[in-house]
Amino acid sequence: MSDVNDANIRQLFAMHFNREGNACNTAEDSLYNLTRVQAALYWYTNHLLMKIQKDTQQKVKFVQGDEQQAAKWERMGGAEEFGDNSIVLTSPPGESGMLYLRDSEKYRDVRVSAKLEGNVVGRQTIYLRYDRQKESFVRLLLENNELKLEEKQAGRPLVELSKATLSEIHWKPEDLAYDKATVYSKAQTEAGAAKEDPGYPVNISHTRLREIALSGKRLTVSVDKQV
């Protein structure tokens, strides 16, 4: 069947995108065996641009969105897009994206309320009292459905102060967001999950409401209204 398909494709078309996964095709590639990128529904613009930049090894211009909002932040890694009341931070492949709120070193007592969207398997971090000169901070991590509190004092190693597993996330096979338009069973997905996956497929997404209050040496955190 593949031989018949190949013969008809060559007769009917001048070129054929036959494989998925890479955005770059060169002059050495066969016109009838080209690769393509299948963008998923959950991708933001900068996600696609980051993929194109990685595959082509050429610099691209990322979208920034609201310029007034962007002026309040300093990029320390990745690409950011600002909306009316949102920040979409896209990490480079294999690295972390990070934004620093300008003049925030002046803040002592703060209250932060934020909805964190994205995949359950992965890491999202909020730094508090971050001193870039001394490399000291307190940070809250939402990692693989666990909430972690870590502290780094100047000249000392990083210390984990506490850890808590968050409420279970219920999902259905049709919730999966894979690159291909395929529905996988739960058994299939978990069988092929990454080793660090604590039971959730790598592409299951969820939103957590996190509220943080920092006053003096007292820190109060709630996730989805649970303190």
Structural features, described:
With 227 residues, this protein is of the alpha+beta class. The protein contains four helices and 13 strands. The chain has a four-stranded antiparallel beta sheet, with no helix packed on it. It has a three-stranded antiparallel beta sheet with strand order 7-12-13, with no helix packed on it. The chain is elongated, with a radius of gyration of 22 Å. Mean pLDDT is 87; it is low at 179-185 and 193-197.
Q: Which range best describes the helical content: under 10%, 10-25%, 25-40%, 40-55%, 55-70% or over 70%?
A: 10-25%
Distance between the termini: 60 Å
- Contiguous runs where pLDDT drops below 50 for at least 5 residues: 179-185, 193-197
**Averaged pLDDT, please?**
87
Q: How many helices does DSSP assign? A: 4
Q: Quick one: biggest sheet?
A: 4 strands, antiparallel
Task: Briefly characterize the structure.
By secondary structure, this protein is α+β, with helices and mostly antiparallel strands.
